[in-house]
Design goal:
heterodimer; A: mainly alpha; two-stranded antiparallel sheet; 16 helices; B: alpha+beta; Penicillin-binding protein 2a (Domain 2); Beta-lactamase; 3 domains; five-stranded antiparallel β-sheet; four-stranded antiparallel β-sheet; 22 helices; about 35% helix
Chain lengths: ~400, ~625
């Protein structure tokens, strides 16, 4: 058994390493601009990758049952850090970073991991799959608490990731899809509240579902009140937003309306990606990047550098690597019979999928700009470490699979 | 929590159900990736061209390089319009805020007032990627001041930009026209031709008529800029495109004659002088007075300069040679005489029914003559400019024939000279014209008397008149006047159907006007010693509220005319009073053609009047 545990999943590690190496190449490219004003020190990312690999090997020697034990302490620590970060001075307009000497890290990244772990603890403790919304009250609260703290920072993107995690994990824990839908229905209500006809149709549809499915009285009460409440509160809430906050959301819908200001990033990113064409302008040759038209080249928009310099082919390559990685994650979650390990594995897949989707969709203007990093590729050490911890957890769940088989 | 994970199986996590959920999850991830791939396909492949274009326009700024304009030469190769080396300052700001900031520094140096700055900002908004012209003609101190500022002001361009210069200035102003910044309406029409805001275009005169030939083709310098609008370097793909010089024009005019006309035009008067070579229709001189300095427009004209010109009551910007119309008066008697001979309404040596007793009684109306001429033949009548004779000729012709022949000889047409803004000439095309203008039957038969002496419903440009007199001198060919020598034969517009003997009668009559002692111009003309046989015809046309307008049309040498000059002076009094100017110009031209210098001149031998004197 010890021999089996020491076996690494070289396939997973290889994919993660390949993506990170592409990321370092792109960061090097992003630092090459015409007038050399970019202070992006891409070399740091190599150090971080080394550190992340060390963390990977360290974690992969921890037995899964210890991971299970530190779930709650990790969660509590994450909450404490999320509260502490709110008390620290804002960096770049948000209370998201904690600075430790030369490094800075986001507690919300650690919180995502912790939420996956505690959720898995809850899933493992289930006697029967959740059938009612009341069955989901506890995990919802566990996710909502850090999500709310993150939303105050403000960091809408990470809050959305928490919502994705909640729905993906409740689904994996055995809740029917309809139940997941009813759980999230108040959020949909908020989005549709800006169009009265759409919202009315939506409320009618929800009402019809409730009528046909005949859930418990409590579910009825939750769904009805929360949907109506969110629908009515949305407009006053919108009006209470400051002008620039409204602007940010509106510019997403129509970036060309403010090409010099808020829409600049999306437009320049699309120009970079679109001008890359099939094969790209060549590594280091991107003009949008080189002449600094492309903003946030090393973090949010690293994918646009890829699109510009390596073209559609480069995009396909990275998507393919991610697809292999995520499918492998889902496979591990599927195969491992242990509820905790399986849920952790699935949670990591959901986490990386949400980041991948929100980040890349933003670069082509499909989703608003939220500032979520692209796993493995974006500059930023702490998130790289989190990603490799995720790979290590997959590796643990993978070897656990054999553990149970051989028992 | 139990440490042995294997003992913790719940129905929830049985493998079959998990397989289904994993399949849903795989479908979800696959679906998302497929959607994203489609989005990238759409941007990178479907709309690639659009974004590639935007990427290029992001990164490349085109700095137009001015093309040297074609040079204008006179008929002897003297320069009428040229390009002087000059420097222009323009600004290609990365943003509107940058423009405002830069203008704060630049406005005091360039002496730009707030309205001028506002205008520049407006131009920038209209075409953000284009440089706005701050000053088209920098002096040396300003240039060196700006040179020092260049590094601090993003997008400041100091470029050599040839400046149009007219060496003869005011003497050729109406001929050459001038250059001015292109207007918005014209820019909207012509943008496809490569014009940009701030470009100078020919606005009047030859500069306008031959704009497309003269302008050449702009070159361009392509430079790469970064997102802040900072210059990175020349664009690697195509750094430079050389401008093409505009084609030069060789004009028919004589620059010395232009200068002479400018010198001797009666000061303080308004009017015009036009001279043609009657053999070819080539314009030798085209001058309007008062005039202006077209060089003013080439630099950056101040608002005050423009106001001074455009609001001057003397209207110096109007080209009176082609754009002002006057009744031709007695000069038109040549036309009436030619019509009478064409139709044979009288013999050349025949007297009219009534001698001139200072006027002519027509019905109840007395039509006056300026003197008492007694019995006169056609020749006598032209020499003395007897109105009484021509009233009776007009009656014999009748209004119908007079208007028919007048319009056949194109008195109601433009000459078609290669200049913009030529006025249409006013002449009744037929008797219907009177019906339309006054109503049928509401005009008197007396109109024909007025028309036959060039008064009434007739108004023509000086150019029109000199064109007609040319035809009388060259055997009847009405030629289209032209300013540019293009090597092609002149275009013949009409033919006066007179015999050469008949033309001879008209020509000798012209000689008589100047040289016969009875001639209207005899006394005034001989203030100047004459070295050539010169003929002419005066015209003095009454006009409401002032001195009469003075016409004089003269030609020489009459043996074989090489030049015919028309001078019109508004409120210039008697037409003959202007004859010395016309004669001076003719002699200046002929002397130059014959290589004579002014101090070698000897008076011409006395004119033999055996043929051209009195009829009997």
């Amino acid at each position: 058994m010890a021999g089996l545990r020491s076996r690494h999943n070289w396939y997973l590690l290889g994919l993660a390493f390949a993506l990170s190496a592409i990321g370092i190449g792109l960061l090097f490219s992003a630092s090459q601009t015409a007038l050399g004003t970019a202070s992006d020190r891409w070399q740091f990312q190599i150090v971080w990758l080394f550190l992340a690999l060390v963390v990977y090997f360290a974690v992969s020697f921890v037995p899964m049952r210890y991971v299970e034990k530190i779930a709650w302490p990790a969660y509590l620590l994450a909450l404490v850090l999320l509260v502490v970060v709110l008390a620290l001075p804002a960096i770049a307009g948000a209370h998201s970073w904690i600075r430790l000497g030369p490094m800075q890290f986001q507690p919300s990244e650690f919180a995502k991991l912790a939420v996956v772990l505690v959720f898995a603890r809850w899933a493992a403790s289930l006697e029967a799959p959740p059938r009612e919304l009341t069955d989901l009250a506890k995990p919802t609260a566990m996710v909502a608490l850090p999500a709310a703290l993150v939303l105050i920072q403000p960091d809408l993107g990470t809050a959305i990731v928490f919502v994705v995690l909640l729905s993906a994990l409740t689904f994996w824990a055995g809740a029917p899809l309809l139940l997941v839908f009813l759980l999230l229905s108040p959020l949909i209500s908020i989005l549709l509240a800006f169009s009265l006809p759409l919202w009315s149709l939506y409320i009618l549809a929800v009402g019809a579902i409730l009528f046909l499915r005949r859930p418990s009285r409590r579910t009825w009460a939750y769904v009805a009140t929360s949907n109506l409440f969110m629908g009515t509160v949305a407009l006053p809430l919108w009006n209470s937003l400051k002008g620039y906050q409204q602007q940010r959301l509106l510019v997403f819908l129509q970036p060309e309306s403010d090409p010099q200001g808020a829409g600049w990033n999306v437009i320049q990113s699309k120009v970079a990606i679109g001008s890359g064409g099939l094969l790209g302008k060549g590594f280091l040759q991107g003009t949008q990047k080189r002449l600094e038209f492309l903003p946030e080249r090393t973090t949010d928009f690293i994918f646009s550098v890829l699109g510009e310099e390596l073209g559609f082919v480069g995009i396909l390559l990275v998507f393919a690597l991610f697809a292999l990685l995520l499918m492998e994650g889902v496979k591990i979650a599927e195969r491992n019979p242990d509820p905790f390990a399986s849920t952790v594995a699935f949670g990591m897949a959901a986490l990386l999928t949400s980041h991948l989707t929100i980040n890349t969709a933003m670069t082509v203007g499909l989703l608003p700009i939220t500032g979520l990093p692209l796993p493995f590729l974006s500059k930023g050490g702490s998130f790289l470490v989190v990603c490799f911890v995720g790979v290590a957890l997959w590796r643990l769940a993978w070897s656990d699979r054999f553990a149970s088989k051989w028992r | 929590m139990k440490s042995d994970s294997g003992a913790r199986h719940t129905p929830l996590f049985d493998l079959v159900r998990r397989n289904q959920r994993a399949r849903v999850a795989r479908l979800g991830i696959g679906g998302i990736l497929a959607l994203l791939t489609m989005a990238f396909f759409n941007v990178q492949i479907v709309h690639h061209d659009d974004y590639a274009r935007r990427s290029t326009s992001n990164q490349v700024r085109t700095i137009p390089l001015a093309a040297p304009r074609g040079i204008l030469y006179d008929r002897d190769g003297d320069v009428i319009a040229e390009n002087l080396p000059a420097y222009s300052a323009s600004l290609m700001p990365p943003s509107e805020e940058a423009l405002a900031r830069s203008m704060q520094r630049l406005a005091p140096i360039l002496h730009l007032d707030p309205p001028a700055v506002e205008e520049l900002q407006r131009q920038h908004r209209l075409a953000p990627g284009q440089p706005v012209l701050l000053d088209g003609d920098l002096d040396y101190t300003t240039l060196s001041l700006l040179e020092e500022l260049r590094s601090e002001i993003p997008g400041l361009l100091l470029q050599p930009k040839p400046r149009r210069h007219y060496p003869a200035g005011a003497a050729t102003a109406h001929l050459t026209g001038y250059m001015a910044q292109i207007g918005e309406a014209e820019l909207a029409r012509q943008r496809a031709e490569g014009y940009a805001a701030g470009d100078l275009v020919g606005t009047t005169g030859l500069e306008r008529w031959y704009e497309s030939d003269l302008r050449g083709r702009k070159g361009a310098e392509y430079m790469e800029v970064d997102a802040m609008g900072r210059r990175v370097g020349p664009w690697a793909v195509k750094p430079f495109e050389a401008p093409e010089v505009g084609s030069e024009l060789h004009l028919t005019v004589d620059l010395d004659l232009q200068r002479r006309a400018h010198e001797i035009f009666p000061p303080g008067k308004r009017g015009a002088i036009v001279a043609l070579d009657p053999r070819t229709g080539e314009v030798l001189l085209l001058y309007s007075h008062p005039t202006f300095d077209p060089n003013l427009f080439s630099g950056r004209m101040t608002r005050q300069d423009w106001r001074n010109l455009s609001e001057d009551p003397e209207k110096p910007l109007i080209n009176r040679a082609i754009a002002a119309r006057y009744a031709p008066g007695s000069v038109f008697k040549l036309a009436t005489a030619a019509m009478a001979m064409t139709l044979g309404v009288m013999g050349e040596d025949e007297y009219m029914d009534v001698p001139c007793r200072g006027g002519y009684q027509f019905g109840s109306r007395w039509f006056g003559c300026h003197s008492v001429h007694g019995w006169a033949t056609l020749r006598d009548a032209i020499i003395t400019s007897c109105d009484t004779y021509f009233y009776q000729i007009g009656l014999r012709l009748g209004l119908e024939e007079l208007t028919r022949l007048g319009s056949a000889w194109q008195f109601d047409q433009r000459t078609g000279i290669d200049l913009p803004n030529e006025s249409a000439n006013l002449f009744p095309a037929s008797t219907d014209w009177y019906d339309e203008r006054y109503g049928a039957g509401r005009w008197g038969s007396g109109v024909v008397l007025n028309l036959s002496i060039g008064q009434g419903e007739i108004a023509v440009t000086p150019l029109k008149m000199v064109q007609f007199v040319s035809a009388v001198l060259n055997g009847g060919e009405l030629l289209q006047p032209r300013l540019v020598r293009n090597g092609e034969p002149p275009e013949k517009l009409a033919q006066l159907p007179l015999s050469s003997d008949q033309f001879r009668i008209l020509q000798t009559s012209l000689v008589g006007v100047v040289n016969d002692w009875r001639g209207t111009a005899f006394q005034r003309a001989h203030y100047t010693p004459m070295r050539y046989v010169i003929g002419g015809k005066s015209g003095t046309t009454e006009h409401a509220g002032g001195e009469p307008h003075a016409w004089f049309v003269a030609a020489g040498p009459m043996e074989n005319p090489e030049i015919v000059v028309a001078i019109l002076v508004e409120e210039g009094g008697s037409g003959s009073a202007q004859s010395p100017i016309a004669i001076d110009l003719i002699q200046t031209y002929l002397d130059a053609r014959r290589g004579r210098l002014p101090d070698q001149l000897t008076p011409a031998p006395p004119v033999a009047l055996s043929e051209s004197g009195r009829a009997e």
